[in-house]
Structures are given as C-alpha cells and as structure tokens.
C-alpha cells in the first residue's frame, strides 16, 4: 500500500502488531495453570517482557521470581517464553518442583541447533545482546562452545579455535538488518561459516519490522507500544528511525506519551511489540483521538495465522482434569475426546489470527 503524507491529523496503524503466537501461548499457559491448579503459580522471570501483562497475571495469583531457588519446594513453576538453560531444569528437579515449560517453540528451535552444532564440535557465534534471558538460555545449551557476538563490530574481534569449524545462531528478537550485517561481517572472516537451516529471527519480529518500515517514512512521529526490557519492541523504534521517521519513541502505554512530541505533527505512526496486548494500542488510539488524530488507516504488510499448542505438561494436566470431570458427571468421557484444548487462538494482536 502506498501511503500519501498529505492527510491532516491521521494515524497510520501498522499491521501486524502486538501478540505473536509464542507470547500468547506463554500468557495463556499461566492463565490456564492458575485456572487448573489455583494460585499460587510461580513464574521464573517475566513470562513475557511486558509490565502490563505481568501485573495482570500477578492480580490473578501468579508469583514472579528470579530463580528456581526462590520457589518453595514441591510447588508449580512456569518457565518463561524466553527459554532456560538445562541447568535450570536440573535445579527444578533437585527442588522437586512441578514444571511447565512455556519456552517459545521458535526459541526451542535455536536450542536444538546449538546442541547440534556443539555435538559437531563447532564454535558457535551467537548473535545477541548480553544478559538477555534468551541469550542466557541458549548459551546454557553449550556453554563451552558459544561466543556472544553483539553486532558487526564484535564480529571483527571474536576468537575461535578453528576457522573451518564455525557456526552462527541468533537471538530471535533482533533487528533483521543489523543481524544480516553481522552475519556478513562474520562470513568475511570465516568463509566456511555454517548457519541454521532457516532464519533464527522469528516470523513475528520480522513481520513487525517490515510493518513499521511501511509507515515510518510517511510519519513525522512513530509510537511503539512496548516495555523497555522488550528486545523486539526496542528494535522497532530503531527500525522506524532507520526507515526515515524523524522521531520514534517507546511507550508502555498512553500515559508515557509526551504531548510535546506531537507539536507540528500531522501523521503519527503506531505499532506495538510482540508481547503487547491490543488494549494498550486501543488506549493510545483513544488518547490520540481526543487530541484530534481521528483518521486511522491500518497499513497491512503481512498476515499471520500461526498457532502453537500449549506446553505438553499443561495439555496432559488439562486432559486428566477433563477426564476426571467427565467421569464425575457419569459420562465416562475420556480426555482424548475433548475439543482441542491444547491449541489456543492468538488474542490481543493486530494480526489476522486475532480478527
């Protein structure tokens, strides 16, 4: 779609935006665990990187902790969408914790690739940001083999044992353009560099970056709804600026908008990170409408229909609960005859899957 920059006081609303399949799966995992087992349900780290989502789940009875050692022995703990290292699973077993692993399947894919490259005795160049939970989890799959590379500059200095046995992986929420530049820099140093069979950067991260590029050049201001610790949300701000937006800001919600940003602005671009519920975007749209930005045009660059099944541990518990409820009612219906309780639609997203 070609966007004309001439319409007064309008909002260009990026689509897709908001919840991806992995985020929705993780959030619903905690909600269904609370429904099934009752509070408290412990969650290691933030289930997804969004302050509003965390507060909502806390209000329902979730307790967020930093480490498995903070969970009382024998209790139920959910691992976040960002994934955990094998040592975390070991710690949970030692504390006799019941676990539900809500790691995004696309992050699990990277973990599998790390184990495979390590088994082949490759040095693994992991493109990502130091300290990010996803990077910590992936590194933990093969700590003796992984070297972190944070951008093209570090590609020039990383040291490996054998330039002929080198592979790269990446964090799933990075800037596509910067990651490609980093891979190109690595290939110049290591011509035999191996890579994953398909991109590690997830479909939702890529789609949201393409969508924000589609509106950035036609907007004087781009607002990205998302939390500061959300890597994919922060990248959207950077991509918007690189794509031509004179100004771009990250806000948790409408309360984070500075009205001074709107001085002289006729066109506002609006999008949200992959861990942001749609009601926060609606809140920003109302805030803008109250100030005269009433003409909203949705600019679609891709459609998303991907769904992920709930974690197998939770599906098992749901089947057992459904089976028990059926026998109590005297129907004798087994859990295997229930509707598809393990697959959930995406909520709170600007994608086609939510419509």
Written overview of the protein:
With 355 residues, the chain is of the alpha/beta class. It has eleven helices and twelve strands. A five-stranded parallel beta sheet has the order 10-9-11-1-12, sandwiched between helices. It starts with 9 loop residues before the first strand and ends in a 27-residue tail after the last helix.
Break the fold down into its secondary structure elements and pairings:
Elements lengths: L9 E6 L5 H17 L3 E4 L6 H10 L1 E4 L10 E4 L6 H9 L3 E4 L3 H15 L3 E5 L5 H7 L6 E4 L2 H4 L10 E5 L5 H14 L13 H14 L4 E5 L5 H12 L5 E4 L15 E6 L5 H13 L4 E6 L11 H17 L27
Parallel strand pairs: 1-11, 1-12, 2-3, 2-4, 4-5, 6-7, 6-8, 9-10, 9-11
Helix pairs in contact: 1-11, 4-5, 8-9
């Amino acid at each position: 779609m070609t966007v004309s920059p001439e319409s007064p006081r309008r909002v260009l609303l990026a689509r897709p935006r908001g919840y991806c399949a992995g985020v929705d799966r993780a959030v619903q995992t905690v909600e269904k665990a609370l429904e099934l087992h009752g509070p408290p349900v412990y969650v290691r780290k933030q289930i997804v990187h969004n302050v509003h989502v965390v507060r909502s789940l806390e209000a329902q009875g979730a307790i967020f902790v930093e480490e498995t050692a903070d969970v009382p022995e024998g209790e139920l703990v959910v691992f976040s969408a960002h994934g955990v290292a094998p040592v975390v699973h070991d710690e949970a077993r030692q504390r006799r914790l019941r676990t539900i692993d809500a790691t995004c399947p696309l992050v699990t894919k990277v973990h599998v690739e790390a184990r495979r490259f390590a088994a082949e005795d490759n040095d693994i160049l992991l493109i990502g940001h130091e300290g990010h939970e996803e990077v910590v989890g992936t590194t933990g799959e093969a700590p003796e083999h992984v070297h972190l590379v944070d951008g093209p500059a570090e590609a020039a200095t990383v040291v490996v044992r054998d330039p002929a046995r080198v592979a790269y992986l990446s964090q799933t929420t990075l800037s596509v353009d910067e990651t490609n530049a980093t891979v190109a820099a690595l290939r110049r140093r290591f011509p035999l560099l191996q890579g994953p069979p398909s991109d590690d950067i997830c479909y939702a991260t890529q789609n949201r970056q393409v969508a924000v590029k589609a509106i950035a050049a036609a907007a004087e201001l781009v607002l990205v709804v998302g939390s500061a610790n959300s890597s994919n949300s922060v990248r959207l701000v950077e991509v918007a600026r690189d794509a031509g937006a004179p100004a771009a800001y990250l806000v948790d919600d409408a309360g984070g908008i500075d009205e001074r940003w709107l001085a002289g602005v006729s066109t506002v671009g609006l999008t949200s990170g992959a861990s942001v519920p749609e009601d926060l975007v609606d809140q920003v749209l109302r805030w803008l409408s109250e100030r005269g930005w009433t003409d909203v045009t949705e600019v679609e660059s891709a459609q998303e229909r991907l769904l992920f099944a709930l974690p197998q541990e939770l599906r098992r518990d749901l089947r057992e609960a459904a089976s028990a409820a059926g026998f109590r009612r005297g129907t004798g219906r087994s859990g295997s005859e229930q509707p598809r309780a393990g697959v959930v639609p995406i909520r709170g997203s600007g994608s086609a899957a939510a419509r």
